Amino acid sequence: MTDCIFCKIINDEIPSRIVYEDDDVVAFLDLTQVTPGHTLVVPKTHVADIFELDETLAATIGSKIPKIAHAIKKSNPAIKGMNIINNNGTIAYQSVFHSHIHILPRYDEQDDFSIYFGDHSESFTPEELDSIALTIKSKMEEY
């Protein structure tokens, strides 16, 4: 894809700071560096998001995450944890439409990154949860 910034990085058309590369995947530092070591793991094949990944490519990408995450953690003894995030769609804060996974080292509670999960457990009856689960389960065979 000619306008994709990640494709340009993969094709060496623009500079990047690559930390890992093989035939299928490239990992490089995110320019924003939300926290030091913030790395993106990107398939070399252009797919927009999780919904365009097939099982083989997803497995290939997923198999690289632990290796890259371990290297990032070992690179800085101040890292106390890590978020691994995949955003899909504008509503989910995806800003580059080439599938990628963020690996975000965490240093402390003030490191300029947060996630908030609201608790709506009191809003659903057991029957409503059963209905949601059954609907999702019924769609599994369609993939």
Quantity of strands, as a count:
5
CATH architecture: 2-Layer Sandwich
Number of distinct helices? 3
CATH class: Alpha Beta
String of helices and strands? HEEEHEEH
Q: What is CATH's topology name?
A: HIT family, subunit A
Walk across the major sheet and give the strand order: 1-2-3-5-4
Strand-residue proportion = 15-25%
**Secondary structural class:** alpha+beta
Average of the residue pLDDT scores = 95
Quaternary state reads single chain
For the termini, the CA-CA separation is: 25 Å
InterPro entries: HINT (IPR039384), Histidine_triad_CS (IPR019808), Histidine_triad_HIT (IPR001310), HIT-like (IPR011146), HIT-like_sf (IPR036265)
Protein name: HIT domain-containing protein
Pfam families: HIT
Q: Could you characterize what this model shows?
A:
InterPro entries: HINT, Histidine_triad_CS, Histidine_triad_HIT, HIT-like, HIT-like_sf. With 143 residues, the protein is an alpha+beta fold. The protein has a single domain, classed as HIT family, subunit A. Helices cover 29% and strands 17% of the residues. A five-stranded antiparallel β-sheet has the order 1-2-3-5-4, with helices on one face. The radius of gyration is 18 Å and the shape is globular. The protein starts with a helix and ends with a helix.
List keywords for this structure.
alpha+beta, 29% helix
Question: What is the fold's blueprint, element by element?
Answer:
Layout: H1 5-10, E1 18-21, E2 25-29, E3 39-43, H2 55-75, E4 81-85, E5 101-106, H3 126-139
Antiparallel strand pairs: 1-2, 2-3, 3-5, 4-5
